Amino acid sequence: MSAILVGPLAVAGIAAALALVIAGLDRVLNNYGVLTIRINGGKMELSVKGGSPLLSTLAAEGIFVPSACGGRGSCGACKCKVLSDVGPHLPTETPYLSPEEMARNVRLACQVKVKKNLDIELPEELFRVRKFAARVERIRDLTYDIKEVLFALEGQGIEFDPGQYIQLVVPPYDKVPESVQRAYSMSSRPSDPHHVELLIRLVPGGIATTYVHKHLKEGDSAELVGPFGDFGVRDTPATMLCVAGGSGMAPFKSILYHMQETGAYPEKEIWYFFGARTTKDMFYLEELRELSASWPRFHFVPALSEPRPDEGWQGETGLITDVLDRYIRERIDPHRGFEGYLCGSPGMINACVAVMQKNGIGEDNIYYDKFA
Q: Of 183, 193, 165, 166, whose CA–CA distance to 251 is shortest?
């Protein structure tokens, strides 16, 4: 054999041997066997194979903790309390946890590996979260960048409270090699348990929104996981001040039509402020105006911040926060007190919170879904 080949072959042999050793060590060191996860003081016990993140381990047992990023540690949604000692909080967790949460042993389920028997606490409502097989029944363009997607659920229907959200499972496509999940508020009504409707705005570069806008077709199969969230109406006589923009319409559509349909919270007055730049960003105008006309305690206030002269807009103009401020001070009866319900971008939410607090609405009475 040529001496020129001896060196490379020897190196290749050593590398192969090392690879086998590493693989063997990995099987031995990471073979944690069958472990027990006790949930909520023993109300439920799971026997699981060790070695995987807590998030995916629970999902394999049919318990779905919310995770908008699919377990990559970039959303901070999969919080749960881990009572067992699993070591200090990781640098991948601390940006999403407050000092109070860390003191209470709150962890990100996607960052905790199941290497020993665990004792954890989960919200009871997560036990009704399920994975649903669905078919895309209808896709409708609401604006140039927002689609209304109606899913027909196969098999058992869904029970949810208006204002909750669900996670859409996006399969691998194009340059996305793995399945991911993204969270969207449901705009459908709980009275129809066999359908889930989502309003999905195209975000440039967004994995899920690009898939929905460019690839998803009517008749396609889909998977949904949920329901999650507690963005719902509080049972008080306080007047509701609802503010949204764009696809932030979704939870309010569900909440408002459910309230009108069931007569829920009959003492509440509802004011719904919806902001957009121009008329091409507005949708559901006729439906909500008809709802306002037929439902005396509901008031719909759409506003454009940049109306064009040729649009013939007859409604309110200006930033939605300025419109909200003016109505609170001049138009809405304050005697029952106020509650704020907000859904939109962090900037919009923060601006609305500032306006409400300036007008005497306490932080404890302001509830919101803030888009990442």
A: 165
Give residue 88's domain range.
Answer: 34-126
Q: Each residue's pLDDT tens digit in the chain (372 positions)?
A: 444 444 544 544 565 555 455 545 444 556 788 999 999 999 999 999 999 999 999 988 989 998 877 677 888 889 999 999 999 999 999 999 999 999 999 999 999 999 999 999 998 888 889 999 999 999 999 999 999 999 999 988 999 999 999 999 999 998 788 888 899 999 999 999 999 999 999 999 999 999 999 999 999 999 999 999 889 999 999 999 999 999 999 999 999 999 999 999 999 999 999 999 999 999 999 999 999 999 999 999 999 999 998 888 999 999 999 999 999 999 999 999 999 999 988 899 999 999 999 999 999 999 987 655
Measured CA distances, 242 to 131, 146, 305 (Å): 30, 20, 18
Asked whether residue 339 is domain-assigned, the answer is: yes
Whole-Å CA distances, 284 to 109, 148, 274, 287: 39, 11, 10, 5
Residue 75, in any domain of the structure: yes
CATH number, domain with residue 39: 3.10.20.30
Report yes or no on 3 lying in a domain: no
> Which of 176, 205, 228 is where one domain is finished?
228
Parallel, antiparallel, or unpaired: how do β-strands 79-82 and 118-121 relate?
Answer: antiparallel
Q: How many domains does the chain have?
A: 3
